[in-house]
Write a structure and sequence with these properties.
It is a single chain. The chain is of the alpha+beta class and about 850 residues long. About 45% of the residues lie in helices and about 15% in strands. A hairpin with a 7-residue loop joins strand 11 and strand 12. Helix 17 (about 350-365) packs antiparallel against helix 19. It is elongated. The termini are far apart.
Length: about 850
């Protein structure tokens, strides 16, 4: 038994380069893989233990549930349909089962465009073809664990190529796999963690080209990365360019100008070859991006001028966990590594080149302009910081053997393949222990002041970082002063790093600290969501083979049509056709995140008819306040919460088919001058032509004055008596208390749709505003982004449909959920009589 234990210990030491042993390279790699897998599993299990304890999945309540799960389920059905027909020998049916356009995505959209940004080309998502719909959630959760695990392995491959020490590679791989970016982005946006996997492979392949080796790995890496989308390809390409420029100089020195052209040509041609191999998905996605809507996001006030507090916060959160990708949140060991690197006498060529690369990343990290640039000038976000984590993780691997040296030698005997110009003999950086001691102690004191004693920067994340920094520094000092085997200190350091990563994970997720866990759903949420969504009944699917769209109540799950396979109005995809949102803006539809979330047409009869809406599906007990809708079918559905929940389908008597004809047309410039209500009534009577040549060719040209407009403004009385929490003077609306309500009374018209319009509704200080409206027949709540919101679109006017009623409506209560100061130019009430509506719709059929 002792002999077996001794052999096991020797194998472990050999695998981590703690001692020499005749293990083959293959066995060393297997041992390394086993140790890494064990430590990764322990860190993940303990760091995310609260998920298992509470029976939670890794499905984030918002993007993951509403986009990623739907996309993964869609992938499986999409590829299975193709393979099913292909293997049955029906080649032409196989081709027809690979559609390029789907009316079930939003109001109809190219398939590749929105789904590429969610992983239709991701090799891991392709595995969903073998996963039944009922197991989609299980497969999704498994990928959440697999992706950071593979990221650590690809990082270790780069470090093995660089001929670093195995134990240092193990430490750096764990730091990289559990970086703040990985902990935050992987469960929230699992697609974003793909960049963690491919980035080390891309740089490894590029370095092989620069060292005049075969380009196959680089080509394949670019190919796989391009299949997943342009977003992270762009970010990695920026760093590739900087890396190549610095690396060529590092490798060839005075021959730089002689080597840069042929090596750059080879790298660029390999890069383009990888892109061309992925062009079947890459090109449609690029086209969709440029044809997509203008996101109109708000940029930071200061792109280059920042406060001292901002700089301190950025530096503290290099090693302090914070639930966002704008900060690095790495293990505390990175801080002494950085300090030692800057004050050490390490190899000058490597240090000079690394400082250039590090400096470039640091500028991008500190200044908002850097994040804006790395995000393709869309908006400033730190989604690129996985690259900075990669740099600092490799620096950790490089420096650790120089911080914790072998006692039996006086210099590092091996030279990294990344340091080809360094001399074989390298002095230890700790040759002057007094200087390093002073620097470390001073740095520790400064860091401790800001993280422990300063209220501005103190947080649980910073306290964890400081507490883990103390044993790390003690191990560094003890290794060079206490006469013990180096193996003891190296194992101790690995264990400290592992504990640090567990605490970082726990801090971010626990509800008493980071509270990130509150945004995740319990196991079985996919099935529960599926069962709770309004769907089409069997009667509709069997009896109606025509084209139609389905409207549903405004809800938080806009991708229900893609999940339940029908043609809907709502959608939430990050990349969509930009024409439809333009129409939403023109009609003043109150929608949040307009460029990617679309919540239907607010129940407006005219817009629904023009959009070929034939059915309204709901699981609510109330009858929709829509004109022309009658109950068509009613069925019972079994759910976990309500075994007798009813599914109601209403038929729109005035629906239009997908194709209908006009006998009149009006010019686009005149149409744009109309109010939102007049626009929808105009579209019932004439088609809008924006091309002057088309206006001359087609007969039926009319002026706006020739059309009928029946909507009219209704006077109202603002009941402000007794309202002490709300004042409205000189276009300034001041609300001093949350959920402040105001009631408007008016004499509406019978047989009409009633609307409320908020014009000039704006705030320069508020992030968003939630407004609810309540009448005798309807209640609705809408959230709109304001100036401080990153998705503000310069929208100031919002038109709310209060529904159709045969009897005149007489009052509406408007509730402002968020207290604050707003700009509000006017509130108006409109009635849109339906007397002309049936004839106008029938004329288009």
């Amino acid at each position: 038994m002792k002999e077996k234990t001794g052999n096991l210990w020797k194998s472990l030491q050999s695998a981590l380069d703690f001692a020499d042993d005749p293990l083959s390279r293959r066995k060393k790699l297997l041992w390394f893989w086993g140790i890494y897998t064990l430590l990764f599993g322990i860190i993940f299990m303990l760091g995310f233990w609260i998920f298992f304890q509470r029976g939670l999945s890794f499905i984030h309540r918002y993007d993951a549930l509403q986009q990623h799960i739907v996309a993964q389920q869609y992938f499986g059905q999409y590829w299975r349909a193709l393979l099913r027909n292909y293997f049955t020998g029906d080649f032409f049916s196989a081709l027809s089962a690979l559609p390029m356009f789907d009316f079930g995505i939003g109001m109809g959209n190219d398939i590749i465009q929105p789904l590429t940004t969610l992983g239709i080309g991701d090799v891991f998502s392709l595995g969903s073809v073998f996963v039944p719909v009922r197991h989609t959630e299980t497969y999704y959760n498994a990928l959440i664990i697999l992706r950071p695990y593979l990221a650590g392995l690809t990082f270790s491959a780069f470090c093995f190529y660089a001929k670093q020490k195995n134990w240092a590679i193990l430490t750096g791989s764990l730091v990289y796999a559990f970086s703040g970016y990985a902990l935050f982005a992987n469960p929230r946006h699992p697609f974003f963690s793909i960049a963690l996997i491919y980035a080390p492979l891309v740089f490894l392949g590029l370095d092989m080209i620069l060292r005049k080796k075969k380009p196959f790995l680089f080509i394949i890496s670019i190919f796989l990365l391009a299949l997943t989308g342009f977003y992270f390809l762009y970010m990695i390409s920026v760093f590739m360019f900087v890396y190549a420029f610095i690396r060529i100089y590092h490798l060839y020195g005075k021959k730089f100008w002689r080597k840069i052209f042929p090596l750059s040509l080879k790298a660029i041609s390999s890069y383009l070859l990888g892109l061309m191999m992925a062009s079947v998905l890459f090109l449609p996605m690029i086209l969709g991006f440029f044809l997509g809507p203008d996101r109109g996001v708000t940029l930071p006030e200061h792109l280059w001028f920042i406060s001292l507090d901002h700089i301190i916060s950025k530096f503290i959160n290099i090693t302090a966990m914070f639930a966002t990708w704008d900060y690095l949140g790495l293990a505390a060991v990175v801080l002494p590594v950085l300090i030692m690197f800057f004050i050490s006498k390490t190899e000058k060529p490597f240090k000079r080149c690394f400082l250039l690369f590090f400096g470039f990343a640091l500028i991008l990290y500190i200044f908002p302009a850097g994040s804006l640039f790395m995000n393709g000038f869309g908006y400033a976000t730190g989604r690129w910081t996985f690259l900075f984590s990669l740099i600092l993780s490799f620096l950790t691997v490089y420096m650790l053997p120089r911080i914790l040296p072998f006692n039996q030698v006086s210099s590092v005997s091996s030279v990294s393949s990344l340091d080809s110009r360094a001399k074989p003999s390298i002095k230890y950086m700790l040759s002057n222990l007094k200087k390093e001691t002073v620097f470390l102690i001073v740095s520790l004191c400064v860091y401790g002041y800001f993280t422990v004693f300063n209220d501005t920067f103190r947080s649980w994340g910073s306290l964890i970082a400081f507490c883990m920094l103390l044993p790390t520094v003690i191990i560094i000092f003890a290794c060079n002063t206490v006469k013990l085997k180096p193996t003891v200190f190296r194992i101790a350091l690995i264990l400290v790093v592992a504990v640090n990563l567990i605490l970082n994970s726990y801090y971010m997720n626990h509800e008493d600290t980071g509270k990130y866990i509150n945004d995740f759903e319990p196991h079985g949420i996919v099935k529960t969501t599926y069962n709770s969504l309004p769907s089409l009944s069997k009667k509709v699917r069997e009896n109606d083979q025509s084209f139609y769209r389905v409207d549903v109540p405004y809800n938080w799950f806009p991708n229900s049509s893609s999940m339940l396979n029908y043609n809907g109005l709502t959608s939430y995809w990050s990349l969509m056709n930009g024409v439809i949102p333009q129409g939403f803006v023109e009609n003043e539809l109150p929608l949040r995140f307009l460029f990617c979330i679309r919540g239907g047409f607010d129940g407006r009869a005219a817009l629904n008819a023009l959009a070929s809406v034939k059915y309204y599906s709901t699981r609510k007990h109330d009858t929709p306040a829509y004109f022309g809708y009658t109950l068509y079918d009613e069925t019972n559905h079994k759910t976990k919460t309500d075994k007798k929940q009813k599914q109601k389908i209403y038929l729109n008597e005035y629906s239009l088919p997908l194709g209908y004809t006009y006998d009149k047309h009006i010019p686009g410039e005149e149409y744009l001058e109309l109010s939102a209500l007049d626009k929808q009534e105009a579209m019932l009577q004439a088609v809008v032509l924006n091309n002057a040549e088309e206006e001359k060719i087609y007969p039926g040209a009319v002026n706006i004055e020739d059309l009928q407009f029946t909507s009219r403004e209704i006077p109202y009385i603002l009941q402000s008596n007794g309202l002490t929490d709300l004042t409205w003077d000189d276009n300034v609306l001041n609300i001093e208390k949350d959920n402040t309500a105001v009631t408007l009374t008016f004499a509406g018209e019978a047989d009409s749709e009633t609307y409320v319009r908020l014009s000039g509704f704006f705030s320069e200080t508020m992030l968003e505003a939630e407004v609810s409206l309540k009448t005798e027949i309807l209640y609705k709540s809408r959230t709109v982004p304001l100036a401080k919101h990153p998705y503000f679109y310069d929208e100031y006017d919002y038109l709310f449909n209060l529904g159709y009623s045969e009897e005149p409506q007489t009052a509406v209560t408007i509730t402002f959920k968020n207290k604050g100061t707003y700009s509000l130019e006017d509130i108006k009430i409109y009635c849109y009589p339906m007397k002309n509506y049936p004839a106008q719709v029938n004329a288009l059929k």
